[in-house]
Structures
1.
Amino acid sequence: AAAFLDGGMTEFEFLEWLHEHVGHGSYEDLDELVAFDDEYDPVVNPGADRWSQDSPEAEPVLHGVREAARRLILNDGAL
């Protein structure tokens, strides 16, 4: 989470990390983000990474990703 907020990884890299290390069903408040990784994976859904950069509709979603990262840090990784 800190690496993402410090600019060391993109939103999609952070979501991929959450998917791999947290997974589905581990923390209810992160399930939406884990599912987001499934839906907007640029490998599975070509152009998804451009959507995050080019679409005004992406900003609220990306804001939610940043907020989740901040929650992880505030809760010392325990949600």
Note: The radius of gyration is 12 Å.
2.
Amino acid sequence: SVALASVGSAVFPFKGMSLMIFNMFAEGLRGAGLETNQVSYMIGAFFASIVFAVVLGLVISFFFGIDFTPLKNADIAEICSKGGTKMNNMQVATMTAFVIGFMYSVVMLFLPKDFPGYGTINGIGQGFWFMIVLVVLSLMKFDGKRAVNIERCFSDAVNWGIVLAVCAFTSIGMMISSPDVGIQGWLGGILGKVFSDMPFPVFVMVLTLVTIIMTNFFSNTATAGIIGTLVGPFIMQYALDLGINPNAIIPAVVMTASLAFLTMGAGGSSPIYLGLDCMKEDPKWVWKYGPVVMIVEVVTVGLTLTLFSYIL
């Protein structure tokens, strides 16, 4: 679930790290006279995430030794008969609020910039918009009970130790990747030699492999920024020489950089995942099976996006 959520989070190019990397490439594409197209990005990323999910689901039983027989033989009708199958009013309101919160980014994608009040609406931001939705939910009551108890959520439901760990490791990762440290220049020299004169399909596979290795030891945002900066000129050159759609290759960087879970500093969700009781009891588990997930991601995302860069 962590792997699928991480890869799936990069499907939309108008939020978070996806937006940052897409804009980074967009500036270079416009400078080279190439078209920027978020639709091509989303189509390629969507199908790549689906292929990854399907293949991972097919191989997980073999590599992880999971027995799906009980799930296969489960009687869904009997399970549903033992509990409610309809959401109550509070659940409907909460789900509706979540959809409204999520739709902010979607609406902003299609809202014309000359729309009255566009600057104010755009200035709210996705995070603050969710806070507004949360406050509204906290004022709503169902059967005398609030839909959301903000005080309890922030005091009991948030593991502040993990939050602080995320901030600390992310800051360390960003500092390590700073140009002043010299690592970015060193990697640029190495990757420049690695990526030169490669057939395009090989380039994409190597790109995803290098990105997924780096992202699990650096901050994923820092990794995406470094890789995006270094490989941008190569992708644009392939677009000019071969006519491939560079917009469909950008997700290869974003989706792969998002799959960060091996170390605490890899990504925002890494401390939460590695801090689970089951992971603390057997910390070697993630190092034993994690590479399998990484290999599946490299192969599926790399091949799918290579295909879509030719056909879009």
Note: The longest strand covers residues 141-142.
3.
Amino acid sequence: NINYYHSAYRIFSLNYTSSAVYPSADKLSHTLESYNPYYLVAGNPRLQPARLHTIQYSYNMNFPSRSSSLQTQLSAKITTDKIASRMEYLLRDTVLTAYGNYHADAGANLVSATNVGTDYNIDARITYSFLFSPIRSIVSLTPSFSFYHTPTYIGNAYNISDLYYPAFTIGIRTNFSRALRLTLSSSTTYAYTENTTTKNVRAIAEQVAVLGTWQISKRWYAYANYLLRYYDNLTYSDSRNTYHQLNAALGCKVFKDRAGDICIAVYDILNGSTAFTAAVQSDRIRNTWAYNYGRYI
């Protein structure tokens, strides 16, 4: 690990770590777990330990005379002999001779761990923050790019996924006065995944968050926050989702030194029935819908 302080306003950091990732004993044992006859887990005594290499670099520069700063970050993770699961779906009754002639029923899944090769990902980002005097705001701009190379098994098929993940984030923190403050952030991401055995996937996502606080008087205050999530799977035209959430509150500080707080709040004013999130991974996109309480006070 190296840290270099060029001055009070320029800091350089470089870190490298390496560690072994050992498989658990049950994965190495030449046994078959058959507690669930339709989900069989087989050990692999030829399994090799994986090794993880991590490199992190950052260089931060502050410019007090211009009320601005520049941060650069680069990180990389490399895993050799990565351990992944391989699942084989048995179409008919099968005798597993390698595991004591176990009789597996048709429709069972046979899962085993195996070394799939080298997995690596790279993430690079630059953040520039500056004072924008006309609206008394701190503005931050962050372009970033990530790349994931992931060998894995999708069922019984060996697949290599290459995920390209550019993104751009803008944030604004402003104090119009001592009484009114506003924070806004917006992030746009695009994901393109190339697969060797399955269909390539393209998707775009947008997230906008706004938080406002208003100190009405010495004791009274109000706040509101709004969240928008938009997701569009460009590969499958029917996979598009939008989610809105708006919360607001009115409160009063009570007792000596304003130590107490009485507040009435309305959650999910737009009465959204479900919250939606999309997690882009190297070999798939996972969409999650979670039930909400709906509007309540």
Note: The longest strand covers residues 157-175.
